[in-house]
Amino acid sequence: MQGLFFDAPLIGLLELIHVSQKSGVLTADAELPFSLSFRAGEVVGGGILDWQGLDAIYTCPLVPEAGGFSFRVDAGVGGDPLAPYGKITADWARYSDDWNQILAVIGSPSAVFQGDLPLFDGPQGLSVRAAADSSGLPLFDVAERVTANVRAGRLRRLATYAWYGLRIRHHPGSGRGGRLAQALDGERSLGDLALEGYPLPELREDLLAEIRSGRRFPGCGWLLRDFLWEQRFDAGRS
């Protein structure tokens, strides 16, 4: 089964797979590519490239504006449900509505904040992603709390991102060249390149092109998600 989201909305596909108790993998080929694995109609896995789990699923658009899909039936898909199907779709719908309001304040989960709150009270602050990992709380919940505390004046945003620590080597097959491609040597971090004066929009565009060309590296899933959000919500800071 395959088609376009224009003709078959994602939520309708999810319901069809659930009601018919199908097992297999649903893949979304869109600006943000993601996949969902089903066993007997229940969601047992999914995410964005190497970023897997409910946190990743809930950052995907429940109503993709464009793109296509394919569903590959696979009776061998295993695993336990991540949560009851009804809870997943209800939470996903709520988060989809609320993420835009949160991102208008924080920019992206990679943004770093500092203030007089636990986890964020160090001199270097902490990103929303790192705070979620440290606390074991869902990414959305942490982002929501950070948003509330930014509005209350208890947290301030710093000029760094979680992805500043990544060290990535340029992939020749991406078809991109120039000084930035040469600078992605796997030795210097993305933060080092930013400090050297490389514009953030250029860094994002180059790495998005690498990922879209098939380049894979640890963290490419959450990096793709955050870069796309930053292009939309954080452009004024670049």
Task: Please outline what is shown here.
With 238 residues, this protein is of the alpha+beta class. 40% of the residues lie in helices and 18% in strands.
Q: Could you characterize the architecture of this molecule?
A:
The chain is α+β, with helices and mostly antiparallel strands and 238 residues long. Among the domains are: 2-89, no CATH class; 97-153, no CATH class. Helices cover 40% and strands 18% of the residues. The protein is built from nine helices and nine strands. It has helices spanning 10-19, 54-57, 85-106, 128-135, 139-151, 178-183, 190-195, 200-212, 220-233; strands at 2-4, 24-29, 34-39, 42-48, 51-52, 68-73, 111-115, 126-127, 155-161. A six-stranded antiparallel sheet has the order 1-6-2-3-4-5. Helix 4 (128-135) crosses helix 5 (139-151) and helix 8 (200-212) packs across helix 9 (220-233). The longest helix is centred in the middle third of the chain and has 22 residues, at 85-106. The chain starts with a strand and ends in a 5-residue tail after the last helix.
